[in-house]
């Protein structure tokens, strides 16, 4: 598990390999990840948007931006957590992801960025 705390918001990431697929005339490697966002601060916050940089072993980079996470903009009171699962397809059996969440602090009315730590994606059959 990979973890990072930014301004009292703890991000934990677990990854898993889902399988090999044939899509758009190419072999694709499917990975899933589960993210837990924990508000360790003393303020209520809301996740408003996300930014991902996804890179595979063939040096292909994909940028993903959007509002919320999986259609939600969770509000976290102090001590609360929010978890969700998502995934990505790579052209190789190895890769990595990193990014950030944009959040609003309801106490200070300020916006801030929470770093999502870099985490590796790897198919177990390809490891030595």
From TrEMBL:
InterPro entries according to UniProt: ApaG_domain, ApaG_sf
Domain ApaG: 3-128
Cited Pfam families: DUF525 (PF04379)
Protein name listed in UniProt: Co2+/Mg2+ efflux protein ApaG
């Amino acid at each position: 598990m990979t973890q990072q705390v930014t301004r009292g918001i703890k991000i934990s990431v677990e990854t898993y390999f889902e399988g090999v697929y044939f899509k758009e005339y190419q072999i694709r490697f499917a990975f899933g990840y589960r993210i837990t966002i924990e508000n360790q601060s003393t303020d209520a916050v809301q996740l408003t948007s996300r930014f991902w940089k996804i890179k595979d072993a063939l040096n292909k980079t994909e940028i993903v931006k959007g509002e919320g996470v999986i259609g939600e903009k969770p509000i976290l009171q102090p001590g609360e957590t929010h978890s969700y699962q998502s995934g990505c397809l790579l052209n190789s059996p190895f890769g990595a992801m990193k990014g950030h969440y944009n959040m609003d602090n309801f106490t200070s009315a300020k916006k801030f960025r929470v770093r999502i730590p870099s985490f590796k994606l790897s198919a177990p059959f390809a490891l030595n």
